[in-house]
Amino acid sequence: WLPTGIRSPKSILIACSTGICLLVLAFAVAKVAEFKTGSERVNLSNRDHTSLLYEAESGCEICPVGDCDREQDSGACKWYPPPEDKAGAFHCRVSDCILAPGKGNGISGCWMYKDLNYYSVAIRDAPCQRTRDVDAEDIETGDEKVEKEKEEEEEAEVVQEIINPHDPRLAAYWDIGDCGPGKDDQHSEWCGGLVYKPDCEQVVPVGQDLCLSGFAHLTSISWDDDKQTYWKWVDDCSYEYYAQYTCLPVTTTTTTHTTTTYTSTTSTTT
Predict the structure, then answer these.
(1) Which helix (DSSP H) or strand (DSSP E) does residue 225 occupy?
(2) Which tops the pLDDT comparison, 27 or 50?
(3) pTM of the entire structure?
(4) Beta strands in the chain (DSSP E)
């Protein structure tokens, strides 16, 4: 960047002696300042671009419908390169295949992975369809989501097994003989004892091995409209009455129950 002819020490001395030295020094200072300013501008530009790109990717939703699997470190939609995905793609999860946008333009048809519905977006630089806040739950990988939902389903199954509307352990009856599904005259105290007209409690306390909530409520009681009687015949066993209770859900509020009145009730009917 020195002027033509100003290359050797001798030429610099000559230039200085002729008054050109000041011009050369000023030119050099200007070039250094220009180079420094340019470097700072380039670095700033790169930093801004990276920052904006990260902000866009971390809150960017690539999938036109549903939610993408996300990277754990950045929260950006996760690109599955080959061989994780045959051709390389983003994986988009939908609750039902009918919601998938349909095959074409880089979008695959609906497919299933561990009983969950997905489609793929095989466009590496796909634009954001929308932006949203990304939380820790969004950053879970596909496998983590599957495991979490399986655990939730298993917990729901446990509750469903407990809340069995025909659980014989929650039946109150007066059986003729000892032929009922449980012990003889099981829980007959819930209906006033061995009486011909049962007076069954609406809610009874039970052990949490039977109901997680600790309570069961009356759901049905035998009654023959034609004969106007509570007598019932089931599975080679006859009953003066048969009442079925079902677990109250854990979320049900059971704040005030006249449990003392219920448990101490005695029948005055003869």
Answers:
(1) none
(2) 27
(3) 0.36
(4) 60-61, 67-68, 79-80, 89-94, 111-113, 116-121, 130-131, 171-175, 203-205, 215-221, 232-234, 237-247
